[in-house]
Amino acid sequence: MLDKIRYFILRALRNMRQWPFLCSASILTMAIALATVATFFLVVVNIDQLATRWTREVQVVAYLQKPPAAQNLAALTNKLKSFPEVESVNYVSQSTAMQRFKKHLGSDAGLLDGVNQKLLPASFELGLRPAFRNQQGIATVIEQLEHTLDVDDLHYGQKWLKRFNDFAKMLKFVGVILGGFLLLGALFIVSNTIKLTLYARRDELEIMALVGATMRFIKIPFMLEGAIQGLIGGLLSLVFLTLSFIFIISRSLNSFWLTPTDFDLLFLTVNQQIILVLAGVVLGVLGSLSSLRRFVRI
Amino acid sequence: MIQFYNVSKKYSGDAAAAVKDLTLQVGKGEFLYITGASGAGKTTLLRMLYAAEKPTRGQILIDRQNISRIRSRQIPFLRRKIGVVFQDFKLLQSRTVYENVAFALEAQGKKRYEVSKKVYQVLKEVGLEHRLQRKPLELSGGEQQRVAIARALVVDPLILLADEPSGNLDQTVTFEIMDLFKRANARGTTVLLATHDHSLNQRFPRRVLTLDQGVLVGDQRPSHM
Predict the structure, then answer these.
(1) Which residue of A51, A107, A254, B116 has the lowest C-beta tally within 10 Å?
(2) Does A19 contact B94 at a Cβ distance shorter than 8 Å?
(3) Cβ neighbours of residue A154 closer than 8 Å, sequence gap 6 or more
(4) Which CATH architecture is the domain A59-155 placed in?
(5) Residue of A18, A203, A211 with shortest CB distance to B104
(6) What is the ipTM of this complex?
(7) Residue ranges of chain B with pLDDT lower than 70?
(8) Domain boundaries, chain A
(9) What's the CA gap between B32 and B165, in Å, rounded?
(10) Contact A145, A77 (CB under 8 A)
């Protein structure tokens, strides 16, 4: 048994050495195909991550007709916190609002000298739980707010949120469709490249069958060869991916999507990297198998 | 050893059958020529014997096994009893002489030490033991054919089939090759040699089957047999 395994591995390696051009073509095709799919995956994952981050900023600001009495503030805050949709409650008093405004004006803050500190309204800023950071969640919160507070005005970026929700849905939809097409395309190209390499070696397959080799004996070295090529292709795709991540993905996302400065783009996790390399192995074996079916006839 | 009963073979798309209603018996250890013009059905007859083609009608028995409707997974085991030699040698150009011959034994799952011993022995027999590490293209046509014969003989076949083995060789080399077939035959291997070279039979008289447009039109044995 060991003798056989050793023979199959040696044969696979020897075949690769004997056909260096064909072998490199298969490896490169697999590497490029896998890297393309993985790059696309990274773009989608990062945009999704960015989107999640943006939604964190989804909040409802309720401007009050008059500030609550100091002794009621704690009770009011607790009541707002008790809403199932609400994650955080921040009370912005009239003086805090003025301070923020001054800070915003920066060097022009002097314009506000002598202005009544109570000019700006007090407000509650409500952060929402992730599951409710959508139109419906906001609508529910608003309805409850109107029953709880004397609200003068509400701010919640409704149009922006709707547009964003639509965009996120479309992104996922397009992601699944395009990712599926890319994967199919990659499979097709890899399988055809392997078919070409086998076509160049059809004499060998014919002679093997002629001297009484069984199907298994013919197929195993080719499948092993596919697996080795897939492994190398998978590792190479990881290199391509790292390079494209550094030079293409991060640069273009940073410029197009205006990522916040503290936003770190995501790369594949260790598990995902292992899956990528294993996908290469599976691709190699399946590509070989599907092509062999066509060329090996006993 | 080999029996054909009313065997016909018609390729799809062809108007006429390549082999028609062939009935024939070949005894164990026989040596026979199959002659006829191009397209007479010689190659088809040989291809049916190593199950590269299935007969359209009739039965073929080899060593008491009916191979007319043989299952695909049994074919490799049938081929291990049969050595085949072709006009164009069918050697793997990227492999050495040793590897080409060893290939036949490796395909049968033989152990490494058995392979090397047997390969060296058979290459010595065909006079190529000094060319072990050469690639086929570095050899002459006659030497390449001897490698092909070594590959066919290394498995100790019951039957040796040769399809125009001397088609690309000059007469001296052809006679050397014929000598190898005779020696294999003397050890008990049944030899079927398809050829249209009548000089072979004149120099090495044996039973001759003549095919014409797929029909067996002659079966002559030399007078001394």
Answers:
(1) A107
(2) yes
(3) A60, A61, A62, A63, A142, A145
(4) 2-Layer Sandwich (3.30)
(5) A211
(6) 0.85
(7) 224-225
(8) 2-54+163-295, 59-155
(9) 14
(10) no
